[in-house]
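Below is just one:
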Amino acid sequence: MKILIIGSGSVGIGLGTSLLSQNADVSFLASKNTACEMKSKGIKRVGLFTHYSFTPEEFKVYESYSEIPDSEFDFILVASKTTANENIAEMLDSYRNILKDDFTILICQNGFGNDEAYLRYFRTDEVYCARIITGFTRPERNMSEVTVYTEPILLGSLQNEDISHLQVIADMITASGISCELTEELDKYLWAKMLYNCTLNPLGAILDVTYGKLTENEYSTELMNRIIDEIFNVINASPYTTLWVSADDYRKVFYKKLVPDTYNHYSSTHQDIKREIKTEIDTLNGKVIELGEKYGVDVSTNRIIYNLIKAIESEFSD
């Protein structure tokens, strides 16, 4: 079985090293600078759980689709920023020759609805998603650090397809030290993550604080409560469901467990802002706004937060 990981950031390298530790045949598609580091220094997984290190001879790195041999991959793991999805989906369609006949695309990203770009080109039984709530950072270009762990990685389908063939990926990730499971209710868990990310990520970036610090200020707490209320109103107006009956039920878990478990963590949105690159806000609060408009739900607080992130991004040079 051969696996290609598209996106060699913290999540891509984190998953890649996990799979390599179980003797999987893993390749990476990376940007020029990252590929250079990986080819010269290898890759590492550090932080929580078992540490792994692999030399450049133990994996392959490609800088373009045109370099990849025909009929090469069984699994494509997409671990890029969501901003790249349209391009990746189009390129995979253009370079179908790199895929084996019975291939699987597994999307390992933040946000909701990331499969939509891929379903324009591929069948529903070829596109699957993961819920990753584990915290990965990248202290060096060729290294992934596991900084936060609260729940297992979950793999599944948003299109009610059979997911049994994903078990081999889940088993390898679990064996590497990070628990990974299959679920038939992936949408519920992705919305649970949306509640967490949409509430914490942009606000932490705007205020330049950790998740935990947001809960110590009455004004940021009020904003978070409004974001949570609006997201529940969207879920209730849509065909989607999540793990809690009400916003109040979710807040009990959010303030008593989820935030304390990740108190010192800075969000990926915060990291993107610091690096002056585009964030994934469109697939987070932007998706809430899109669905709010579709179902006639007031999402004005989410829109304010979204607009503030967009205003910050507008100052970045292209």
The two ends are 38 Å apart (CA to CA).
